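re: that chain from earlier
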Amino acid sequence: MAFKLTPPTEQEKWFKGSHMFTGILDDSQKLFLGGVDDQYVKMIFAYGIEGINRDDNPNGKKFSIYEPNDNRGTVVYNTNFDITNAQTQTDVLNGCQLLRDAVCDKQTCADGKLVRTGGVTCFLEEVRRGERSKGREERSDNHILLKRND
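^ sequence. v structure.
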């Protein structure tokens, strides 16, 4: 009678109903609608990259779509990218704010936002906070003084 089998409709009960751990499991499943961190897609944005040279691999082999984790290529950096430039910093900071403000009308989006509250970590904001905590002065245009190592 295997054709009458159905998938379970609730989680298995490992403890009797009066056990304190049963209540914790039930509460965590029914009262908290948000997912744990590993249920969200983690995205990382990289700046200053022009592309990837798929023909240049350390082992000399070419990239194959059938083995995507092998021979991925070599990064081609944009030689004109300068994070010490005030406009570049403004663009990066604006990008972070755009992500925070992005609206999402799908049912799966929390609070009508594409990114959950506190979900954006902007490296320039972190550097700025660190510099302020050390008592270092910012430039009058509110940008961070970063040294370039050429």
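The first helix runs from residue 20 to 30.
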